[in-house]
Amino acid sequence: MVPFSFASVELCALPEGGLFHPASLSLLVADLHLEKASSYAARGQMLPPYDSIETLRRVATLADRTGAAALYCLGDSFHDREGGARLPDEARGLLARLTASLRWTWIVGNHDRAISDPLGGHVAAEAELQGLILRHEADPEERRPEISGHYHPRLIVTLRGRRVSKPCFVAGRSKLILPSFGVLTGGMDAADPAILKTVGQGARALVAVRERLLDFPLAA
User: Fold this and answer.
1) For the ranges 101-115, 134-148, 164-178, which has the lowest average pLDDT?
2) What is the maximal distance between C-alpha atoms in the chain?
3) DSSP per residue over 55-75, as a string?
4) pLDDT over 90, % of the chain
5) Of 6, 70, 161, 217, which residue is 20 to 30 A from 130 by alpha carbon distance?
C-alpha cells in the first residue's frame, strides 16, 4: 500500500488498482465487470470463462491483506443486468462469503443500473465516506471531493521505443478516478480529452508500484 492524500483525506493506493481508506478500514474497487466473458459468448465472441472467479479472488486477497471491514464497488460490477444470474457456482459462493463478511456496498453504474439483489450487500446510487462522494461516473458539476470509476484509465507512455500501458489512478483537485479492477476490462488513455475535461486542471496519473507512487502530469 502506498499512502497519499486526496482532498485532505489519507488514502492508500494499491498496485492492483484498489484504494484503501485506513480510517474506516474501507476498500474501494471499480469496474469489476463480472461475467463479461459470458456476455460476449452469448454474442458469439468466445473468451476464457474464468473472469468472475479470478476478479473476485483478487478482491478477496486485497480484503484479507488490508484487513478491510467494508468494501465499496464503484459501479459496473456486473457487465450487464443479468450478470449476477450467470455467475458460476464457485464465483457465486465466493461472492456470498465476501458480502457476508464485509459491509459491502454496490454503487450502480451504467452497465448494472438495474441490479437489485446481487448476492448480499447494499445497493446505492452513491455513497459518502469521510466527506468523499463515491459514485460510478464523475459529475462535472459536483464541487465536493469525489471518487469514481467508469473510464478505466491507463497511463500510456513510450519508453525506449516501446509502448507501455499501465492501469492508473487519475487525480485532480477534487476528482479521483480509479482504474478498472476486472481481469477482462480494457482501458482508456489517461490523457484522453474526456478524462481531462472531467478531472479539470492539475490532472495527473498515479501509478502505485510496490512502495512508491509514480506521479505523471497529464497535459491538457
Assistant:
1) 101-115
2) 49
3) HHHHHHHHHHHHT-SEEEEES
4) 70
5) 217
Note the pLDDT of residue 71: 98
Q: Output the CA torsion sign for 110, 112, 115, 118.
A: negative
SS3 content of the chain, % helix, strand, coil (to 5): 20, 35, 45
Amino acid letter, residue 8: S
> Residues 28, 147: contact at Cβ < 8 Å?
yes
Helix (H) or strand (E) holding 6: strand 2-6
Q: pTM for this one?
A: 0.91
Structure-block grid coordinates of residue 181: 479492477
CA angle 122, 128, 133 (to 5 degrees): 120
Could you tell me the domains of the chain? 2-217 (3.60.21)
Grid cell 490523457 is found at 191
Rounded Cα gap, residues 193 and 186, in angstroms: 18
Indicate the DSSP class of residue 52.
H
| Cα–Cα nearest to 104, from 79, 78, 72 | 72
Query: Is 61:96 a contact under the CB 8 Å cutoff?
Result: no
> Sorting pLDDT into bands at 50, 70 and 90, what band is 159?
confident
How big is the chain, counted in residues? 220
Instruction: Decide if pLDDT at 38 tops 80.
Output: no
- Amino acid letter, 207: V
